[in-house]
Structure of Amidohydrolase:
Amino acid sequence: MSDVRHRLSELRREFHRHPEPGWREFRTTGRIVSELERIGVDEIAIGRDALETDARMAVPDPEELDPWLNRAREAGVRPDVLEKTADGHTGVVAVLERGEGPRVGLRVDMDGISMRESADPDHRPTAEGFRSEHDGYMHACGHDGHIAIGLGTLEAIKNSEFTGTFVVFFQPAEEISGGGKAMAEGGYLDGVDYLFAAHLGLDNPTGTVVAGIEKPLAMAHLTVTFEGASAHAGKAPNEGANAMQAAATAIQNAYAIPRHSDGMTRVNVGRIEGGTASNVIAEEITLEGEVRGETTALMEYTRTELERVLYAAAEMHDCDVTPRVISESPRVDSDPALRDLVGAVARGLNGVDSVVESVEFGVSEDVTYLMERVQEDGGLASYLLVGTDHPTNHHTPTFDIDDESLEIGVSVLSDAVLECSRRRP
Amino acid sequence: MSDVRHRLSELRREFHRHPEPGWREFRTTGRIVSELERIGVDEIAIGRDALETDARMAVPDPEELDPWLNRAREAGVRPDVLEKTADGHTGVVAVLERGEGPRVGLRVDMDGISMRESADPDHRPTAEGFRSEHDGYMHACGHDGHIAIGLGTLEAIKNSEFTGTFVVFFQPAEEISGGGKAMAEGGYLDGVDYLFAAHLGLDNPTGTVVAGIEKPLAMAHLTVTFEGASAHAGKAPNEGANAMQAAATAIQNAYAIPRHSDGMTRVNVGRIEGGTASNVIAEEITLEGEVRGETTALMEYTRTELERVLYAAAEMHDCDVTPRVISESPRVDSDPALRDLVGAVARGLNGVDSVVESVEFGVSEDVTYLMERVQEDGGLASYLLVGTDHPTNHHTPTFDIDDESLEIGVSVLSDAVLECSRRRP
Amino acid sequence: MSDVRHRLSELRREFHRHPEPGWREFRTTGRIVSELERIGVDEIAIGRDALETDARMAVPDPEELDPWLNRAREAGVRPDVLEKTADGHTGVVAVLERGEGPRVGLRVDMDGISMRESADPDHRPTAEGFRSEHDGYMHACGHDGHIAIGLGTLEAIKNSEFTGTFVVFFQPAEEISGGGKAMAEGGYLDGVDYLFAAHLGLDNPTGTVVAGIEKPLAMAHLTVTFEGASAHAGKAPNEGANAMQAAATAIQNAYAIPRHSDGMTRVNVGRIEGGTASNVIAEEITLEGEVRGETTALMEYTRTELERVLYAAAEMHDCDVTPRVISESPRVDSDPALRDLVGAVARGLNGVDSVVESVEFGVSEDVTYLMERVQEDGGLASYLLVGTDHPTNHHTPTFDIDDESLEIGVSVLSDAVLECSRRRP
Amino acid sequence: MSDVRHRLSELRREFHRHPEPGWREFRTTGRIVSELERIGVDEIAIGRDALETDARMAVPDPEELDPWLNRAREAGVRPDVLEKTADGHTGVVAVLERGEGPRVGLRVDMDGISMRESADPDHRPTAEGFRSEHDGYMHACGHDGHIAIGLGTLEAIKNSEFTGTFVVFFQPAEEISGGGKAMAEGGYLDGVDYLFAAHLGLDNPTGTVVAGIEKPLAMAHLTVTFEGASAHAGKAPNEGANAMQAAATAIQNAYAIPRHSDGMTRVNVGRIEGGTASNVIAEEITLEGEVRGETTALMEYTRTELERVLYAAAEMHDCDVTPRVISESPRVDSDPALRDLVGAVARGLNGVDSVVESVEFGVSEDVTYLMERVQEDGGLASYLLVGTDHPTNHHTPTFDIDDESLEIGVSVLSDAVLECSRRRP
């Protein structure tokens, strides 16, 4: 098989056809392992060898995991890969040892989302035959391209004059903020001097590079279950403990949590379900919600306030409530020094016509767990954006990327990694 | 001065000109005492001699009491009366000892309300010169007539063949449910075998008598103060503890307290006030509210639920809350046996053209404290209605009564009292 | 096959084994038709011949109906019955013509509920082998017994000296208040002089008969869908129209609809579901709720208030809302004259040791549509209760009835029907 | 009388003794006019000559204005001044014509607030005998010092080599955002090339100068009255239209207005009052609230959302609602060019030890109406801060300023004005 660099588009399209949601990237992990073996690296840590099991978040129940495992098995993924990734342990880390020099990391996310891809003939994946084959799931955020870029960068570094250690983290479950912390604590991040991560698009066209984002939002996802007591709504409403009223009171007051003087906060209740019938006082209601903040402290302020609202709403209606934090991520900004390095590298590159120093990110990303750890240990981290023409917004059924941008991604990242080895830490 | 029976209208109009609100009936008490002395009774217990001080409810602050005391002094009320009624001790009990026989009680309420009486020339008190002289206060519920009837009945019993003991309770502060309990526990009710009370009107025309009401609502009035912390609403809303949000949450959930399978309940928040300025997070909000129930237990259910709502709403917004029960009254029904006696007596009377056995009362009255105590001790009680043509509803600025009904009231009550002495307990 | 009277228990247990929910009583209808043919009646109107199609309420979607139709077909129900009952047209009317005399009706309900029957060996249906064979569904309200009694009564009347016309209405979908109106308007109720209906149990033990209930609650079931606009909850919450907030506001204010001076009202939101993910402003939320009233007017007051709450809550959050009334039933009381007839008949019966004139029903029943129509046309109607020892409450997994009560039911009803023909209208 | 420059402290202390709230600065205006006449200027426009009457906001009712007018008359304010300032027309504009050159403006605010000044002997105004003589009102924000600085600057410019026109706007009613717009449209601002305004303190110590603030919040104050219908809360709650419930629903949803992606917003309900008694459904409730935004558009978004909430809450409870905007102010930033000029001037000054280029203001100020108009006409504006040691926060009973800072204020402003005439527009 030819070099990755000649197969970037082909590889991305293959991954595009097989999107797998968070913690279910069994086939994806298997395919990455194959490519890593083909490229030739010094160490491959698969699944539970690459992650800290106890630090995983938002892991689905076995009944949601197993069908994907079975599908991957049927698709020919190797038993040893399946074994190491089973029970919510997808992901892989590749290490290239090249003598003395800095330890440089690259984090690549790999999961798809649950969305039915457009079958419109004008949608390029449909027209050109690489539409999702996993009905109801889609690579609608560009992670298929990220994987291709990650593999291409690894290959490029292997073939370069790079000295030091290069570690690529293929991280699962970014979309549900579930995998970042587990990978940050998996051991391979220890001692990393420079950490890169990249995202395609985000409203930047092909040819633009943003050297490092800042102000991602700190975030926490929660599920909340109110438990009361049912009763006949006609005969004896007073005998119930109405979880519906508790939930409604909580929702109203959650959105009314005071704005904070230190900056932006967000709160949302995005899902609700509960109760059994119109003539029964609802016994159980479950909510899914989230809080965010411009800083980790602001997110935590909002979470604390939300919890007080939840407990008081439950008490008001004689119910119990159990709020559970499913996943979270801190706010961490790119280091200016590393942004400068990326900017300098990007400016000289073929195909790059605009280099932006920094943008405010405005959403959340659990790469911040990795960035935070690196920075705490004295390293530098930058999360850069590689422009790509995308016809519609991320997370829409007609999202697509421009395959031309994949090569730019490889160039920027591999040159930046190489530059790190020149500078030494 | 002539007999009360020839001055019923004149007396009622004099009281109408001088309405005094609850616990401030200094002049009213003084005038009743004068009439009692003129009639001649065996014992007159004034103010603190007639009441259990600790059982009073809804007593206003001294600064609200004192202007009325001063006005009464200037109007010539005797110092000994003022001394005994000061500090919220208005009211008087008269006792007529007539040998062997049952102890029969009559309860009469005597307070006005805070409402500006109509100055419309079509309003009879205005046309005929007996409009309220206490601006902003009015006898808009007929208690002026009740006092005249009470005095007339006492005089009639004195001049009758009645044997036994007849006690008339001129009770203060009925409108604010403040005086009933204090009079019930004042000592003079002990041993009462038969207790009567009467109300004029309530949509019954002159000539109708209702022998005894049932289903008054049990009731409790509360004031509730939420205390939080102020903060600048623009600069740092998060630094406040918003009593406004706590109050709004409490109000919404108070009205949503579950209906009860055992019968009718009511809840209301009728007054609110608080906060300082639009740009300040409100530190303190005060509510006035009430709960009612078809039974005392249902009222207590609603009060307990309300208190849970209040405490949880405060906690939700990091505030404190202090709910205070200002006054209350239980549900007590008229005894069928005594209703029958009243009905039998009323049927034979001149001027009575319709006798109704019983009606559902639907509102609250603190005479129930007296009725409850009498019934607990084995006595009988009935609260009857004496019809009177009233042009508009009770508690409206153009309320008035038909003076013809006063004589009917005296006849029904005195004949009923007399009949009790014939039957013996 | 022997007479129904000797097979009451056996029949009831057969129906118990095959519970079918509202509008899906295909097998039940088929079995009733077989029995009717065996008994021999003058007319059998099946499904769409017995119902007014446009007056049906709460009819499930085809995908919910069809599995039950298929199961009934596999169980051997005749094609002509299936054809006439398809698409939500279950139920059957039997007519016995016996010359001159009054037209007497008996309404029998026949549906089960969605509840998993207890597998506890102490639960008699389990112990004696007649537990539900339709997993997740159960005759937990006694309708299985009602069918047996209905068939038994028909047979008894056929073999009696009854003259006139006797019509038995096997009505579908009582539990979801869906079938009453359609059967009331199906034609066979026209001209009915006397209408009976009966319910087993309801806390009355075997041997007790209640001659006619009063005060069933008028009721309406609704589904309500709020539709807003989704948006990213972190990036641009202001771009959404939050159906979650609209629903919470509606729920809070629904429970706070003012109590009514004319009597008891109820409101409940018993089910809720909507939204897609914690980081998305919810676009659509669906509620299931109900309103009830002591009278039809009180129910309609509450429904009108609820609708105003719903529309205003939607408008407040820039959403649309569609409230749909799924089913409803009016309040109709038993006629005292017919209650007296039932009472007189019951008093003389073997096995009846207590006859109660009337009880307040306190819940809802769509037989009121049939009763209302009969009364409007000048006829009389009574809904009686036939006591049965039941170990646990109706609508619980361990509900069961005492088979002894079936014969009592047949005796009371057939004697009452016979008595009607003696009295003539 | 000696020059202002030698009386800065004395003047400020005189104004401190006589604080007057917005639109009631009759004595203050009179005293300023006297000083202007003493200094000698070319034109003095008093009250209605200086303001656009129709553009005034938050003007109190006559019964709130008149006592202050009478007090000023008794204090000896000249009849012509009183006539021109009556009916909410306080304020004065002074014009100095000095030949060719730019038109330079200085805006000075002059009102106090309603707060009782501390009588603590440690509070310097108390200790040194210049505590407020208007009980319940206080110069707790430093406007007393602003007036002294404004007069001192005018005198300094008169005695300088300044050429051009210098206009000083003594603006009323800043604290209630009522006077800015009226003065912006009063005519004297037309053609202004450079506009200055200054505020003492705001956490900057004596010796610090901030050359120009940015990001004041756009703001609107509202009063909102809900009108429903009263009813007896026990007898017939359904007959009311509950303004209390409407207000509670509105408050809950007001605080829950979605955060906006474009930046910071604020909403607050700071005052509430209404209803008559605990047993009456509330007929009328009045709220006082405000909305703010980081930009004028964000404030308007919040106001529009708030109004939708208000109207829907009223409709939900069958009430009417009237939201009234009492006052507002846009967001306008200082011009960097003028900030630079101020910074350059300040750096050279005696007593200035720290010059800050700019700070984010974070609150609201209606000087923005004047700045906006100047900028729209092509002029430059800067709002600077003159540090002063203040023992406690602005708007607290123990607020005080350091009189040393008054001279610094005069120096910075007069040098900046002079520098403008050197640069020419």
Remarks:
- The mean pLDDT of chain C is 95.
- Chain C touches chain A through 42 residues (CB under 8 Å).
- The longest strand of chain C covers residues 265-275.
